[in-house]
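hey team, just a heads up i'm posting the complex here instead of the shared drive bc the drive is being weird again. everything in one block, sequence lines first with there labels, then the predicted structure for the whole assembly after. its two chains so it's a bit long, scroll down
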Amino acid sequence: MTEITVTPLGAGQDVGRSCILLSIGGKNIMLDCGMHMGYNDERRFPDFTYVTKEGRLTQHLDCVIISHFHLDHCGALPYMSEMVGYDGPIYMTHPTKAICPILLEDYRKITVERKGETNFFTSEMIKTCMKKVIAVNLHQTMQVDDEMEIKAYYAGHVLGAAMFHIKVGQQSVVYTGDYNMTPDRHLGAAWIDKCRPDLLITESTYATTIRDSKRCRERDFLKKVHNCVDKGGKVLIPVFALGRAQELCILLETYWDRMNLKVPVYFSLGLTEKANHYYKLFITWTSQKIKKTFVERNMFEFKHIKPFDRAYIDNPGPMVVFATPGMLHAGLSLQVFKRWAPNEKNMVIMPGYCVAGTVGHKILNGVRKLEMENKQMLDVKLAVEYMSFSAHADAKGIMQLISQCEPRNVLLVHGEAVKMEFLKTKIKQEFSIGCFMPANGETAVMETKHNIPVDISLSLLKRESAKVGLLPPDAKRPRVLHGALVMKGSKLQLIDAADALQDFGLAEHQLRFTSTLAFDEEGPTTETADKIYQLVKSQLKDFPTHYSSDGSITISDSVLVQVSGDEESKSVLVSWSYQDEDVGSYLLQLLKSELVT
Amino acid sequence: MIDEADDWLFDSIALYQNLYMYDLQHGITAMDWIDDKNVCIATSSGSKHELAELHLPDKLLKASQEKAGLIKNRDFHMNAGCYCPHRVACLKHVPNSRTIATCPDTEACKIQFWKLGTDDTDVIRNISTVENTHSKGSPAHITPVPGTENLVFGSHLDNLCTVDSNTGQVSCTGCQRSERISSMDFTDSNTLICCCQETGELVTFDLREDLTKVKQEHTNNISLDQKCFWTSTVTEFGVLKLSSTGEVRRVEKHNWSTDVGRWNTELNLLSDFSNLTINALPRNEDTVYISGFDSNVYIFNLPMLSSMGSQTDHQVSKPVFKHEGHMQNARMDTQAKLLTTVTHILHPLQHDLVLSAATDGSLHAWQFNDCTDK
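-- predicted structure starts here --
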């Protein structure tokens, strides 16, 4: 037996950041390197002293794997690699590699330049860190070193989100990151092979929830927009260019068309340029619907949605504007917000998460008076609506993924501690597998069976298959083979014992077990032998039995029964070779119970 | 290009005040309110059966509608759950307690009590099982006795039992009649009313006396060849009965002798009557919710009795609203004929808020928009 150990440094009974240390087959892997968005001191980063108290992390880690670009999964990466010290490989998918530095830089600007915090990574550090990244394609087996390989699978959470299958020797682990089992307008559903890993490390943020359907969230979004413009209001939708902006634009375009609405809808130009560029690169990562739309036309060629000009801000009458950035911390979205905020007829719909310190975060927390630059106060009278389109697996999704990949153990991370006992019981009962839920800093240890691959000689296979007929053996049913285990070079081989003896120049020795049963029984010995023969035929039906003219009985290849004695007492000799130990011992017990008592 | 699914979604914006759709791992077999914020459901995969207490999404609760825009929680949260040995046919919450009672869908007529989760655990615990000594091979119905922690359960008129949910102490009696019951409820703190499944007759008992004595019998006038299934619901003013041929009949509390109104809904069901459910909107009993005929929940406005004059028979009534969400959002592989609504319940305080469940595991929470021109 060998162990797999998992220590969450940031996830595990705590929602906020993901960073998990995995030890498998002597390799140490860091799964995600997230930042806790609720803290603004050193607690926002994972506690890397669990890996090493001093020195660089490179000596202790074989690689880092990042599941997707959200900051609670990659936000501490530059801190870890450049400030703590790590020079080894960092694996992520191509879209994650492209989008991750943009988000890190945005966050750095908010934290350092706006909030004036120190002890934070610099722009240069982000660039240096990203140079250590090795991008992977979906389903591409990537050899990390001689012993370890990784493979990415589609996770359907955000553009580029992936689950990773990590294999070291005979052991393997799947790490899901955040994933979603229900396809939507933007992305497909997560999918993985039936790879039967020793351990599945799955997110469980929504493990005890039943998620509202995405379609209802879309419906609410449209209803809010329509109600507002119907009353003559203006709607601002701050979006992240590479998030779900395209999805919302397509939705609104379809609705406008269906309802024959004439109210102008605009998007900011910066948004389209960036989005078109990335969608050209990563179109294969999106849903069928987006792929189809993109083939027909450019991503932002809409009938109803037109490019925005700053001069339109004060246009009279209703309108809808998609503008970047999504957290209202700078740029066009903030400019539009400042102009529209004092009018209660207007509305802002926040479709995503906002980090602390941004205007978006403040208004989502109910702040109605904002201090802007030059100490000017802004009255927020417009309606503020929160609409999350995040795609996470709920209780049903987790069970679906477990049945898809059939792991031997499951480890739940990214959830709350006390209220997951039933889910744990359910996983254990429904799949008859182990289920673990370690807290931060607590190590979960999983024992795994260590299989040793062995080559089998053709002659041995032929001999064994001849015993059960000409059909090929059922690959899923284990069978016992008798042979000699030999080591040739670094490989193990199971060969026919006779071949092994010949190879090593050894003489064959037979090991036989013999036992004699003595008992009183009247009548000739042939009568006793007949009785034994009938017993053997009825109890050992599947074994070839031969009754010789001299009164001896042979069963299988090597089991021999001979009866001797006189009219009053008998001796029965039972003898068998080591290879037929099972049938020999069984027969001896059978004769004891039937004849001696 | 507009998808068909999008069509319904876009139309739903005008049709519903609120619409939330959920997809459970397995289909719901029974459900009941714990209070105005929590609901208990029983689900079954065929081989595995579960109970779960779910907390309603904050977005749905009226108290929070003022700041609804900033409320993030649109999901049901599972407070507690457990496996149970059999598919649950009937589930009732014992009022003012953390106990629920279930009847298994087995030949043995029995009631099981379960303690819902606590602060320390999210596991629902089985506390006791009480057998009905006069089991007649059918699962029981349950109804709580108002103002007590007792319940009445039984499958037929001659095997009704009163059981104390705390002690499990049971008192089984039964009247001379032996019809199978389709539903039962209390019209006041002492009067138990049972609806006979095949005849639609209503039989009442006074709990202050024993259950061997029938207090009143209401004969349901049906023709001899009219073979159908009847169920009922108790309202503030009387009882509404629903037949599998889609007929709704009203009986008033103080006039058990005859039906005061009959409406034909044009719905009809030929087999599997087990899911037929009727509910009336409290304080507006002219609005009835009906499900179990197909994949829809129907809302009918029954013409006011006063407007009908002396005419009580066969007023045809078309639905004022039809919740088609279960079929419209069903997976592509779901066959229309196989999808049926299992049950629906009305929120105890926000009466127009409906929870409806279908055989495919869908659970919808919705309020239709009665201001729109449909």
